[in-house]
């Protein structure tokens, strides 16, 4: 079949009905992409086949179709894709196909299929499919909008729609550690984030529980995605994974002042500190970005500003309430200082350290924070 | 409260926050503790406090981790040093750790990484001023980490050897260092898959030390010294283990160093014989094989010897008195059926019957004595089958000082081989008052064999005066054996058997002495023999016709001790018959006060005749008197008369 020209391949595949044509097309695509040196011509052909015969986005003339897949078609397609990926044992080939199926330009369009595919892989579970999904998240950026969409879909499937099977996810870090780590990074960026565009949101109880469990029981989980080199097709540049550490620490630091007073934040905080302690030393450091670590500063300052505004408008804030707020703030700052201290002591923070200290010094008075800043300024 | 915190130093502040949180929020307390630890990595107080907090909270994993961190950095801190000692102390009493803190420390130790555990034990051992303590700790290290055996094992061997040398216990084979070396360390070195470099010189030294130790511990257990620090379970198995170790290192024949579960003395003896046949171990040239044979044979011999000695004093049945056995020359009687004919067929060809005495023992349950003895004899013979091996054994003996062990056996061996001078010389060495009876019995027996009858009577009298009256026993039927082969017997040391043996010995002394007299007749000897024959009558009845015949030839029999000692009905009947007309009307001069008057051959003096009749009747009436008392009384009170019949 490899001798056949592009039009001939298309022609022969078009004779088949859906979903049989998709099933044959994905095999053909695999062959085209995974050639030792795929030519541009082959790549174009593969992309054409995907659009026309797999996702049915265009017709044979390349015009956009207005009625894409029916629910039944989609279900059959998921079955075909899952089978194909799950049975492709060569990691590089599998990742190459996955990345071209859901590339930066097509992922948004195909996100429905993508999130269902990954959701199935989580549920079954399939370490192979999840490992490709992990590489995908990493290559497109685990903090990117694409990853965010995927994470949202997964949370919806598992934590909102069927909360009674959440416990099944407890073992996910063992089945697919890299995927879980990238997934965590994506989740971390969904909550407690600066509410400029969207409202400030908080993770649900069951999500928080699961994450706390994951982190506490697997001290290496947070840096798992950094521990493995992705198997990528030739020519592709491996992207560094962002760890979920800074994002999750932000949750724990901010939780007190947002009245999220679940004990789980304390536990998660401790789990994160322990995870940081376990980070193997690297030169240069790569586990936590100073810019990410310092994110809560702005939020805390804005919060204080808002509180002060409230005081001004109501004028009569009770002393008791004042102390309460002060206590929450001190807990927030204590956690912040602890996180900074532990991360700095392990030397796993990279980026603009000057700025880090500068920003920290903008924060309200806290003895531990002062000790930490003092200690590390001395050490420099 | 806040003011209180304000006055604290930074270090104290952080630790204080952790302590305070401990009561209300243990999770937060841990976060504080981690912070403190990373903030002040070089501050012992902070680090130690962190450890104590985890320990008090009962957190094994965390305490273990903090302990490990401390060990890497703060070994010199006295406070932590104390804690290290607590851990090692807890480890050593692990089995009886009822104390909850000790239990915790042991559990914590298990959570420490192997490297750190190793480091901990090595470190404590190195810093231990007490040598014994140092060795114990190192041993603990080797037990916990078999991988360290190859590096630290030989070092510990050296340490223990020199510690023993410099301790005041150095001339005692049983001392704590030796115990540790032999019972604890060597078995570890002998563990399979352990590669340890040990020179052959050192191996032999260790073998010497072990043999000496186990022999002494066996002696001690025999003398009922129940010191739990010394008593050893199954010392032979352990000594065999050390042979295995040595053999493995020196490439010895594995069949000589294998002492598995179905090991038997007989099969091992065959292996030794095979070895001798297939190697030139008995010659000077083959030094390596000589050593191999020497050590295997020595340990095997000692094992056999130990079994032999044990079987000589078997454990009594509950409620009974322990009876020991000694090897003595038995008696042969050509008139009895030859019992040796049956075992002779079993014997290997080429062994001449004259050299192999027939050995008996009274009870079948004690038959094992014979086998044990024979095996020890086999070994001893093999030692002396070549000058070279004999010399080597002599050298080894100098090292491990076997002489006290060998003494008893060598006497038996000399008796067995008929080397009476040797046996006598060795008997002289016995000074132990408990062994005097055995010594005297054999002394008497040997002097009899050397036809030194009067001298033989001396130790015999000593025996009669010190009979084991608390252990009565019964008369033996095995002291006489048929045939004319040499007969050896394991004599039970009981009152009756010893008396019986002495009586038989005395009868033979008197008889043999009488037969060597020119006229072959001595009334006193005949009378004395008649008294003695009564004890185990009719065992010696074959002698009676001989005696009666002599009396008849003489026509007269005068024995003034008659009324006092002759009460056996059969003997009295025979004598009375001689006195009658049918019997030949022999003159019986048995009434002491009638000494001057000659009894008429034709019975002229009716009164005297009546008196003799009465006397005989009176003697018959006494026939139920206890004979052992009678014989004992005779031997001890009539020694003058007896001596006369021995000269």
Instruction: Give the oligomeric state.
Output: heterodimer
Determine the strand fraction of chain B and express it as a percent band: under 5%
The helix content of chain B, as a percent range, equals 55-70%
Overall tally of structural domains of chain A: 2
Number of helices of chain B: 30
For the CA atoms, what is the radius of gyration of chain A?
24 Å
**Computed structural class of chain B:** mainly alpha
Pfam families (chain B): INT10
Family (chain B): Belongs to the Integrator subunit 10 family.
Organism (chain B): Aquatica leii
GO cellular component, one term (chain B): integrator complex
Which features would summarize this protein structure in a list?
heterodimer, A: 380 residues, mainly alpha, 18 helices, B: mainly alpha, three-stranded mixed beta sheet, INTS15 (chain A), Int_cplx_su10 (chain B), Integrator complex subunit 10 (chain B), nucleus (chain B)
Kindly summarize this structure in a few lines.
The complex is a heterodimer of chains A (380) and B (647). Chain A has helices at 6-14, 20-33, 40-54, 71-86, 91-101, 111-123, 127-140, 145-161, 172-175, 177-188, 205-217, 245-254, 263-277, 290-293, 295-314, 319-346, 353-360, 367-379, and strands at residues 288-289, 349-350.
Task: Give the helix/strand layout.
The complex is a heterodimer of chains A (380) and B (647).
Chain A lengths: L5 H9 L5 H14 L6 H15 L16 H16 L4 H11 L9 H13 L3 H14 L4 H17 L10 H4 L1 H12 L16 H13 L27 H10 L8 H15 L10 E2 H4 L1 H20 L4 H28 L2 E2 L2 H8 L6 H13 L1
Parallel strand pairs in A: 1-2
Helix pairs in contact in A: 1-3, 2-3, 2-4, 4-6, 5-7, 6-8, 7-10, 11-13, 12-13, 12-16, 13-16, 16-18
Chain B lengths: L1 H5 L3 H15 L1 H14 L4 H13 L3 H14 L4 H15 L7 H12 L2 H13 L4 H14 L4 H18 L9 H15 L9 H23 L12 H16 L14 H14 L8 H26 L12 E5 L1 E3 L7 H6 L11 E4 L6 H16 L3 H14 L2 H15 L2 H9 L7 H14 L3 H13 L14 E3 L4 E6 L2 H21 L7 H11 L9 H12 L1 E3 L3 H4 L3 H11 L7 E3 L16 H16 L5 H11 L1 H8 L1
Parallel strand pairs in B: 2-4, 3-5, 6-7
Antiparallel strand pairs in B: 1-5
